[in-house]
Write a structure and sequence with these properties.
alpha+beta, six-stranded mixed beta barrel, 13 helices, elongated
Length: 384
């Protein structure tokens, strides 16, 4: 029965080549757009997270007041197997300024300055371009966008005005790039004793690198159990609103483009509906000769399945080719608007399966309705 239905389905589609190609192409374009949109959304989210984790610790344990180091907390950090490394830090916000020189105007910019110990290099992932272990006493490492805004080069002198109106002269030692514009344009690192001296404060808290960054909220609650002097700030809280918006955006984009696929599936339904009307006499003849109803339904469902598979193959080829190109040549975007400077494409297997499942399901549903209509044809009325 299926062999005969397969023969009829192929014969019907060959007679309407243009409509067949257009219907498959509609499904293919919809699937390709869905795949590319999901990959771009994944790439944006992943790059934002990875760039954030380069200059933001997995977990920050921040003191409620500027206080002396907590020996009890340090002991707990040393003994916890989930803690890969930790380092004390001091945080301040102030102004960095650079004097005018021949060919370069004066510049000033606001910065978040971290006073860090040498152990900070094991906590952050700034890379070789910004070796915190080699940070000199009066040296400062700037974010690349901040260095560009100040128009400074390694070896240049900067004046830092702290939040308590104290000044200290710093020497630019290097710069780092994470890809996150908020960090690259606003962060600077100096030695902990330098910032302690200028701010007259001791400690802001501890920055921690975990073996499993995804468990930062739970690990923070565990480390600070019964502690009244510190509170935990996991990395997820950095750009928390933006990450939530990205999750919502991915769902909305998926829904909207799924509607595009549904609209494209109407092409399959139209082709099959026209096929039912054109072949009403043929269907009546087959029913008169004893063809069972399920065989008639199977013929039109197979037509829809052929169109769906052709569209899915085309959509996957177009989508994967586009994703591959965007992976090698990511889209450049303005970092001051979108927080990252490049938009790569990263496709997840579950998104590919989901896109194909939507396309196949919608196409089969679109083909089933004309098939039911064909089953309702009365041979006696049509042949009379």
């Amino acid at each position: 029965m299926l062999r005969f239905a397969w023969f009829l389905a192929r014969a019907h589609l060959r007679r309407r080549r243009v409509q067949t190609i257009l219907s498959a192409a509609g499904i293919g374009v919809g699937i390709a757009v869905l795949i590319v949109a999901e990959a771009l959304t994944n790439g944006f989210s992943d790059d934002l997270i990875s760039s954030t984790l380069q200059a933001v610790p997995d977990l920050s344990l921040i003191a409620y007041r500027w206080d002396q180091p907590s020996q009890a907390l340090q002991h707990r950090l040393n003994r916890d197997p989930q803690v890969a490394s930790w380092s004390p830090f001091l945080l301040d916000k102030g102004l960095l300024s650079h004097r005018a020189s021949p060919g370069r105007p004066a510049s000033v910019d606001f910065a978040t300055v971290f006073g860090v110990a040498r152990s900070e290099a094991k906590v952050l992932r700034l890379g070789r371009s910004a070796p915190l272990t080699a940070l000199k006493r009066q040296g400062v490492v700037l974010g690349s966008a901040l260095a560009a805004a100040l128009n400074v080069l390694p070896g240049d002198s900067l004046l830092y005005l702290s939040s308590n109106q104290q000044r200290v002269r710093l020497t630019v030692q290097g710069e780092f790039t994470t890809g996150n514009y908020l960090i690259d344009s606003g962060y600077a690192f100096v030695r902990l004793p330098v910032l302690q001296k200028v701010t007259r404060r001791v400690l802001s808290g501890y920055q921690v690198r975990l073996r499993d960054p995804s468990r930062a909220p739970q690990q923070g609650a565990y480390l600070l159990d019964h502690s009244r002097h510190f509170y935990a700030e996991p990395w997820q809280s950095f750009n928390q609103v933006l990450l939530g918006q990205l999750t919502l955006q991915k769902k909305v984009i998926g829904l909207v483009i799924s509607l595009i696929v549904i609209v494209a599936s109407f092409g399959i339904s139209n082709v099959l509906t026209l096929s039912v009307f054109e072949r009403s006499g043929e269907i009546a003849m087959l029913r008169t000769l004893g063809a069972p109803g399920p065989q008639i339904v199977a013929t039109f469902v197979l037509e829809g399945l052929i169109l769906a598979i052709a569209g899915l193959l085309l959509g996957n080829l177009l989508g994967l080719a586009t994703v591959g190109y965007l992976t090698i040549h990511p889209i450049t975007i303005p970092g001051d608007l979108y927080f990252i400077t490049a938009l790569p494409a990263r496709l997840q297997g579950q998104d590919l399966i989901w896109a194909n499942a939507i396309g196949l399901t919608v196409s089969l549903l679109a083909s089933y309705l004309p098939a039911r209509r064909a089953l309702g044809i009365d041979p006696a009325k049509l042949l009379r």
